[in-house]
């Protein structure tokens, strides 16, 4: 059994809708042998990160960056997991209303430092998530989970 860890900061109904769609895709019954674990970004520990085989990150874009909560997760975990999680796949969904480039670039840099492999294109949504947006979130969850089968 492999493990997919979803590290998310979910402060609003729009972020919650995206989170639920990602979880739904990741836990699709056709994906076998992958345990999906969800952790709030403010609660995740280095042990949680080390115990996973792949990662899904979810965050709003805040002040031109990832949320403070997801930043905190990496502040706490980065050095303890450095060199122990190299090569693991990850994906990310972002919600913003005013421009998400800073958050995307931040995760690019963090993942490059950790040596994580981008397993799918980021899903980025502005405003109320549409049906296609939520389908893209579902696909993101399913695609990253399927890569851990
Ligand atoms: C303090 C603050 C800063 C924010 N900065 C950004 C930003 O830089 N870029 C952006 O796209 N959205 C920004 N937002 C909007 C949030 O991303 C948005 O509120 C969040 O994704 C939840 O979406 P919702 O309020 O539509 O549910 C900011 C929100 C807050 C509260």
Automatic annotation (TrEMBL):
Q: Which SUPFAM superfamilies match?
A: Flavoproteins
Which organism does this sequence originate in?
Gordonia otitidis (strain DSM 44809 / CCUG 52243 / JCM 12355 / NBRC 100426 / IFM 10032)
Gene Ontology MF terms in the entry: oxidoreductase activity
Q: Which protein, by its recorded name, is this?
A: NADPH-dependent FMN reductase-like domain-containing protein
Residues in NADPH-dependent FMN reductase-like domain copies? 47-121
User: Highest taxon of the source?
Assistant: Bacteria
- InterPro entries to which the protein is assigned, alphabetical: Flavoprotein-like_sf, FMN_Rdtase-like_dom
């Amino acid at each position: 059994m492999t493990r997919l860890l979803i590290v998310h900061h979910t402060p609003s109904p729009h972020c919650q809708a995206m989170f639920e769609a990602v979880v739904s895709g990741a836990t699709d019954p056709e994906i076998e042998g992958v345990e999906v674990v969800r952790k709030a970004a403010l609660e995740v520990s280095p042990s949680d990160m080390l115990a996973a085989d792949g990662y899904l990150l979810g965050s709003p874009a805040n002040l031109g960056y990832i949320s403070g909560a997801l930043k905190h997760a990496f502040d706490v975990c980065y050095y303890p997991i450095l060199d122990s999680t190299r090569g693991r796949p990850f994906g990310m969904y972002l919600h913003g209303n005013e421009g998400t480039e800073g958050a995307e670039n931040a995760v690019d840099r963090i993942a490059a430092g950790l040596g994580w492999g981008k397993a799918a294109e980021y899903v980025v949504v502005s405003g109320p998530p549409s049906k296609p947006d939520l389908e893209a979130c579902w696909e993101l969850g399913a695609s990253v989970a399927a890569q851990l089968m």
